[in-house]
Amino acid sequence: MSVGERKQHVPIFVGSTFEDLKDYRRAVRDALSQLETIVRGMEYFGSKPGSPIEECLAAVHSCTVYIGVFGMRYGTIPDGFDRSMTHLEYDEAQQAELPSLIYFIDEEIQPILPKYVETGPGTLALRALKEQLRKRHVVSAFTTPEDLARRVLHDIPEVLRRIGTTVEGELIDRDVTNSDELLRKFRLLPKLLRDRDVIVEFETESFDVLSADTCEALRLEEGATIYDHVKLTNGDWLYVYASMQAAESVLDIPKGSKVRAQGVTVYGTTRDIQYGEDGAVTTTEEHRGVRLTKILTISPPEVKQDS
């Protein structure tokens, strides 16, 4: 945005349970402030003439984008309602047809205090809500507050562009400037450092279909995912995966092309049981690499000159 130009303010509602996700909400608010957006949520209502529910839902309706952050609590159900406040916020956003970004806390990685884990009837309600969200939206898993903020900054620019808001710069790449160092650490701590954005530069070899077991381990689409074992420009070797539309785009890249792409680190395990004279023997195989999300540049294969 140029000097003297009037700043664009885009109201964004952040919906979540409150006490358990305070640090996460603060991280999202700080991240969105870089985009000159107005963040709205329950902590900003103050003293209002209407009831808390009325004011909350009116705030949702006044926004342009909805961000839903879901942990392990369904939340408080207001008197006279059969759904929690967080659930009502989401429903209001859908009724208003707001573009929606949905994030779930990663239950396998992120430690969660027992007091922030729903018990009783709320457990079933939360499970049903999350299942509904998975069917309606592409859901992203987050770990730390910083990880959530990074994911929001990754996702929100495209949403803003779709609604006609100017977003300057490539905010998507802001946290991937040191991808070589991240990938080095990822090789040592893949479970801890999965789901991180990286930029990779490599020369294509030959893509092949990824097995169903590995697809399940890496949470990729079975029958719509391919992989390649490539050499990075720094000399390291890495498995890269492409799924769905990304798979179609890389299939047309000639072998030997130099590719610069954006991706996300992925990690999972498969188990194999072999039966022998000594009984069953279980082996575990680790799978790690980068799921390609966006091809940035392609340089065609070099043509060798005859001597």
Mean pLDDT comes to 84
Low-confidence stretches: 1-7, 44-50, 169-177
CATH class of the largest domain: Alpha Beta
Number of helical segments with 4 or more residues: 8
CATH architecture of the largest domain, please?
3-Layer(aba) Sandwich
What name goes with the CATH superfamily of the largest domain?
A: Toll/interleukin-1 receptor homology (TIR) domain
Overall number of domains = 2
Our measurement of the CA-to-CA distance between the termini, rounded to an integer number of angstroms, reads 53 Å
Overall number of strands: 11
Strand order of the largest sheet: 2-1-3-4-5
Strand content: 25-35%
Would you tell me which CATH topology of the largest domain applies? Rossmann fold
Largest sheet: 5 strands, parallel
Helix amount, in percent? Answer: 25-40%
**Taking Cα atoms only, what radius of gyration do you get, to the nearest Å?**
22 Å
Helix-strand pattern, N to C?
Answer: EHEHEHEHEHHEEHEEHEE
What is the overall silhouette? globular
Helix-and-strand structural type: alpha/beta
